[in-house]
Design goal:
Layout lengths: L12 E7 L10 H16 L3 E8 L3 E8 L4 H20 L11 E4 L3 H17 L13 H7 L9 H11 L12 H8 L4 H12 L3
Helix pairs in contact: 1-2, 3-7
Length: 205
C-alpha cells in the first residue's frame, strides 16, 4: 500500500508525533530529553519550522508545529536522524530507534488547534508522570505558566489566545504568559475527553 502523501504548505500547522520502535524508551534520562530539545531547537534556528507547543515523554513526543517552507518531512528527518545517532552512540546500540516515519496530521481549524494544545499539554498527566501539565519539565506548559520560554518556542499565538480569552491588558510579565490565565484558558479539560477527540482525528484517512 503506498504511503499517504503529506499535505504541507508554508504556514501550515501540524500535529507531529513518534515513538520508539517496539515500544522501547526514547529518552532514558534528562540528558536525553535535553538533547532531543536541542535537536528541535536547531531546526527552528534554521528557519524551517516553528514550535507552538510540545511535550517530550520517555516513550514518545508530541509537537504542534508550523512549517515555514513546506519542509516538514525534511525537518523531522533531521531531528530524528540526529537524535537517533546520539542515542545509539550513547547506549552502544545499532539499528533504528523510531518505529517508522513520524506521524503528522494537518491542523486545519482554529478550534482543533486549541484542542490539540490542551491534549499535548495533558499528555504527561495522562501518562501518570505529573499531576498538572505545568509540572512536566520537558513540555511547553511549564514555560507558559512559570517561564521563561526557551528561545526556540514560538509563543505569539498562545499568548494571543490567552489575551483574547481574558480580555485583559498587561496580562504578561516581561516574556512570561500569565500562569493563571493560561490555566483558565487551556488547563481545564479532562485527559480522557481530549484523547478521544484527538485520537479520532489521528485515525481519519
Amino acid at each position: 500500500m503506498p504511503r499517504r502523501r503529506r499535505i504541507d504548505f508554508p504556514g501550515a500547522f501540524h500535529h507531529v508525533t513518534n515513538r520508539g520502535i517496539a515500544k522501547r524508551v526514547l529518552m532514558e534520562d534528562r540528558e536525553d530529553a535535553r538533547y532531543l530539545s536541542s535537536c528541535i531547537a536547531r531546526e527552528t534556528r534554521r528557519g524551517k519550522m516553528a514550535i507552538h507547543c510540545f511535550s517530550l515523554l520517555p516513550t514518545h513526543f508530541h509537537l504542534l508545529t508550523q512549517t515555514v517552507e513546506a519542509s516538514l518531512s525534511e525537518s523531522m528527518q533531521r531531528i530524528e536522524g540526529r537524535y537517533g545517532r546520539y542515542f545509539n552512540r550513547k547506549y552502544r546500540r545499532d539499528g533504528p530507534l523510531f518505529r517508522g516515519r513520524f506521524f503528522s496530521k494537518r491542523v486545519d481549524t482554529l478550534t482543533y488547534r486549541r484542542t490539540l494544545l490542551r491534549y499535548i499539554d495533558r499528555n504527561p498527566v495522562q501518562a501518570g508522570l505529573v499531576k498538572n501539565p505545568w509540572d512536566h519539565p520537558f513540555g511547553s506548559a511549564v514555560s507558559y505558566v512559570h517561564g521563561p520560554e526557551p528561545p526556540w518556542l514560538t509563543t505569539s499565538w498562545v499568548k494571543g489566545e490567552v489575551t483574547d480569552a481574558n480580555e485583559l491588558e498587561g496580562i504578561y510579565e516581561s516574556r512570561v504568559c500569565s500562569g493563571s490565565a493560561y490555566i483558565d484558558r487551556f488547563g481545564r479539560r479532562s485527559s480522557d475527553f481530549l484523547s478521544g477527540m484527538v485520537e479520532a482525528r489521528m485515525n481519519e484517512a
